[in-house]
Structures are given as structure tokens and as C-alpha cells.
User: Fold this.
Amino acid sequence: MNDIIPGKIISIFIAFALGIFIMLFGSGFSYADSVLVNDSLSKCSTVKELSAEEKAASDFKSEVVRLVNIEREKALVPKVVVLNDLAAPSDIRALETKLKFSHTRPDGSRWSTVFKTYSLDYMKAGENLAYGYKKPKEVVKTWMSSKSHRENILNPEFEYIGVGYYKDIKGIIYVSQLFYTPISKEGLPTSK
Assistant:
């Protein structure tokens, strides 16, 4: 009888650990998932303060959004709203541009497949990429000087935005912008 109890305890522990692992990493594990899990865990903590690098990334992203909305306002286009659901896909695309600077993902799929990865159905979506710029103002200015990037920024059909940021060990900053209009807006924030 005593032999059964430790066995059950071990079985329960293994099942619990496996459940936690699946909850954190999903059924499939990839490098992108591990980055997101680490990012998610760091942001879930109410005790932990942002590191200097995390604050710099957050400030950079916020400033890009602010500058984009200034450009949209000048063009009499409604502001885009930051959608938290776009944070992870945007950061993944910024990281992927370090691996392959293209609107094609490193696995050869189109950039827009990142939405499917995160179960985000869209009616309309757009992407802008940049790297090597130190300041958000430089990035947005460069995008506004490019016809296709400017069209994304000023497209009145885009309602939501996510900005991705990745800084490599050499200090080079990679930035992505994902513009998004969902099929269904149920439960999503709206512009004011």
C-alpha cells in the first residue's frame, strides 16, 4: 500500500509538470515560442520592474505609434489603436528580419502567416520593416518617404497596429509594424 502512494504522487507531479509545460509552450515548441514565453513571463510579473533595455524597447515602440498617428492625423485618417494581441507577432517579425530582411519569413512563408500562428483572422493587413535606425523619428520619416510604406501608414482601412522591436548584440535595431483590420471586432478596443 505504501508503494502505491509514492507512485501516485510521482504520477500526479509528472502530469502537473507536463500540463504546465504544454500551457507555457503549446503542443509544438519552436524558438519563436520560447521567446514569447520568456517575454510573456517577464511581463506577467507584478513585482518585476522593466530593465533598461525593456524600457527602451517599450519607449521606442510607443514613439513609433505616436508618430504614425501624427502622420495619420495630418492626412485626416483615423488613428490606429495599439492591439496587445499584435505585440508577440510584431516582435517575432522584428526578430525574423534579423535572420532574413524580407517580407518572406525565414521558413519561406509569406509575412502574413504570422497572423495565423497567433490565431488572428484578418480582413486587411500590412507590414512595414526597417533596421539600422537608432530613433523612431528616423524610422517613421524613412517609411513616409517610401510610397508603399507610406500607403500602409496612411491606409484608412487599417484600425490596429503592433510594433515589433529587436536589438541584436551589435546594437542594431530591427523594427516591424503590423497593421491589422480583423474580420470580427468583437471584444477589441476602438479608437476614441
